Amino acid sequence: MLYSNRKKGFTLIELLVVISIISLLSSIVLSSLNVARAKARDARRKQELVSLRNAILLYYDSHGTMPINRNPCCGYPDYSPNFLQELVTDGYFSTIPKSPSSPSSNPYLYYDYGAGSQQNGIGIGVLLVTQLESVSPSTTGLAGSCRPWSPGANWCDQSSNLYYCLCIPY
Prior knowledge:
This protein has 170 residues and is an alpha+beta fold. It has one domain. 34% of the residues lie in helices and 12% in strands. It contains 2 helices and 5 strands. The strands form 2 sheets. The protein has a 3-stranded antiparallel β-sheet, with helices on one face. It has a two-stranded antiparallel sheet with strand order 2-3.
C-alpha cells in the first residue's frame, strides 16, 4: 500500500535524458545526410561529365572538329550563356547539364588544347573539369580522372586537389 498514492509518469530528469538522447541521434543522422548529399552531387557531376564527353565525341565524329572553345584563356564554364551550345543545336542534348550547386562554386569547364596536345605522355585534346565536394583535398588519383600535368601546374595536375578531369584525345 505504500506505493498506491504515487502518480504514474516520467520525472523531469527522465524526460530531459530522453530528449537529449534524441537530439544527439538526430544530429548524427543529419550530419551523415549532408555527407551523403555531397557524395550524390559528386556522382551526378561525374556522370554528367561522362555524358558531355560522349556527346563531344559524337559531335567530333559528325563534324571532324571539337566544339569551339569560346573563352580559351579562362575556360568555357557552364555558367556561360553558350556553354557547348553546339551540342544542343545538333541534338546531342536538349539542354546542357548544369552543376548541381551554384555555378560559381563547382562549374563544368571545357578546354580545347587542340589535336596532338600531350603532357607527360597523356593525350589531352579536350579537357572537361569539375570540382568535387566530398573528396578530401589530400586525395590523388581519383578513379576515372585524368591528371596530365606535373604536380603544382594547375587544376588537373598530379598533386592533391578536388578536381575531376576527363581527357578526350582527338
